[in-house]
Design brief:
Mth169, Chain: A
Length: 85
């Protein structure tokens, strides 16, 4: 079976986000005054083959924990979609 994983990686709330702060400043300079906070993260799209959904889920989770996210300072969430045709 073929699966599509959509992974979102963000800095943990307790970690300062200098890129988010820069975007916030830029948006306010452009007149967007109602913005209170901006956090910038990563978006990763992965297609993979697996025998079943449970195997695909375990593999995507391992990818995130071992390489895609620095779990000391980042958290991740993902969705998994069956794209077998």
């Amino acid at each position: 079976m073929k699966f599509q994983a959509t992974i979102q990686i963000m800095l943990k709330e307790s970690v300062n986000d200098p890129q988010g702060n820069a975007v916030l400043s830029g948006l306010k300079a452009l007149g967007f005054e109602n913005i209170e906070n901006v956090r910038v993260g990563k978006f990763v799209s992965v297609q993979l083959q697996a025998t079943d959904r449970s195997s695909a889920d375990a593999e995507v989770n391992a990818m995130c924990e071992k390489l895609l996210a620095n779990t000391v300072i980042e958290s991740f969430t993902y969705t998994l979609e069956d794209v077998t045709t």
